[in-house]
Amino acid sequence: MAAQLRNAAAIVGAAESNEIGYPKERGPKVTSLQHHIEAIKNVSDLTGIPISDIEGVFSTGWSQQLAEHLGIRPHYLDTTTVGGCSFQVHVHHALAAIHAGLVDVALVSHGQDGWS
Amino acid sequence: MVFRPRRESGQEITLPWHRPYGESVRVARTCAPRGRHGMFAAPITRRDSGRVAYDKPIPPKGLHTQPFWDGAKEGKLMLPRCRSCNRVHWYPRLICPFCHSTDIEWIEGSGAGRIHTFAVQHRAFGGWAKEVPYVTAYIDLAEGDRMLTVLRGVDAEHPETIEIGAEVRVEFEEADEDTHIPFWRVAEGS
């Protein structure tokens, strides 16, 4: 079973948000949501996969908000939060969802405006 | 009755959730923001002109929503519209939720809309507790998309008098100097 899962899907693109911190001199800081949305927009532009094609959203608790912000209705949502490795777990879950035929396109997203 | 823990002296220990809602409570930051403008905010008292202070939660402002709040101060309903697909969306987003373009401009809305659906709220906490019962509604904006609001000009005790599709107009209520919050009122004769 594990061997089948390995070939179920591929990561086809990755992108980052545009800027971190305070882009304007002491202006407002880039927020976590902004990081999410910018990175999602950038990976969509990079891969050529339109945001409307995203069927699964994986994040550390932002999935519901991201889906609403992006105007999409995903078939699969995941908010597994287990610390810094959560995103690898998201990839694992995405692999399982794709292998099960629940989704074809999965988005793993993270954005954080923390200090470290 | 409810079990209340006691110290050895017999004195009752009052845990935060035993206090009535609306009182300022210090809790660890877990999920929803507490503090001055958070969910359990204490009423903000002002000493100027005896005006009734706005004691309900005040929405925080994001960088991309500043044009809305600037317009609200002048009584204008500013709405975000995508230049690529010409659709207005609500709430303001960082990208258009319809076509996902980042080319968004702000237009002045007409302030007109119609009731899409509504619900009567019988339980609330904090500053909203004394307004109960009140009516929350989704308004179909004339320009497009829907806005959630508290409906004014209706009798919450008689929701059968509220009509789906009734015309409504926006009005702004001052929460503090920088924040004027839109509410919708059923227009006369509808």
Give a quick summary of the entry.
Chain A has 116 residues and is mainly α. Chain A has helices spanning 2-6, 32-47, 63-70, 86-99; strands at residues 56-58, 76-78, 106-108.
Would you kindly provide a written description of the structure presented here, covering whatever features stand out?
- The complex is a heterodimer of chains A (116) and B (190).
- Chain A is mainly alpha-helical.
- Helices cover 37% and strands 8% of the residues of chain A.
- Chain A contains four helices and three strands; from the N terminus they run ααβαβαβ.
- Chain A has a three-stranded parallel sheet with strand order 2-1-3, with helices on both faces.
- Chain A starts with a helix and ends in an 8-residue tail after the last strand.
- The mean pLDDT of chain A is 92.
- Chain B is mainly beta and 190 residues long.
- In chain B, 4% of the residues lie in helices and 28% in strands.
- In chain B, strand 6 and strand 7 form a beta hairpin.
- The interface between A and B is medium-sized, with 15 and 12 residues.
List keywords for this structure.
heterodimer; A: 116 residues; mainly alpha; three-stranded parallel beta sheet; 3 strands; globular; B: mainly beta; 7 strands
